[in-house]
Amino acid sequence: MPLNDDIQAALKTAMLAKDAIARDTLRMLKSELGAEEARQGRKLTEPEEVQILKRAVKSRRDSITSYREGGREDAAEQEELEIKVIENFLPKQERIF
């Protein structure tokens, strides 16, 4: 099953469960994947999709560092929860710990 389909199924589950963090994170992932597909004018390959997810995790890790330096632990925790949602879609060997 393509990654976009997996994300859509998880989004539906998150919406039914009223899981706002998962819902918002999955919507963001769908948006990033769709934007990249539109930019390239074709469907993305699995390695390209994984690269986008890894970029999203890295961005959040950078944000966590900045938030903690600024004393914003609540925002850092939010980013950590989003990373957990994203990592569910990364292959095990691609997960960034």
Task: Report what the structure shows.
This protein is 77% helix and 0% strand. It contains 4 helices and no strands. It has helices at 3-17, 20-40, 46-69, 73-87. Helix 3 (46-69) packs antiparallel against helix 4. The model has no long low-confidence stretch (mean pLDDT 92).
End-to-end separation: 25 Å
Alpha carbon gyration radius? 14 Å
Q: How many strands?
A: 0
**Tally of helical runs:** 4
The amount of helix comes to over 70%
Mean pLDDT score, rounded?
92
List the secondary-structure elements in sequence, H or E: HHHH
Unreliable segments of 5+ consecutive residues: none
Q: In one word, what is the shape?
A: globular
Main sheet: strands, sense, barrel: none
Structural class, by secondary structure, is mainly alpha
Beta-strand fraction estimate: under 5%
Features:
single chain; 97 residues; 0% strand
Task: Give a brief rundown of this model.
Helix content is 77%, strand content 0%. The chain has 4 helices and no strands.
Describe the secondary-structure layout.
Elements: H1 3-17, H2 20-40, H3 46-69, H4 73-87
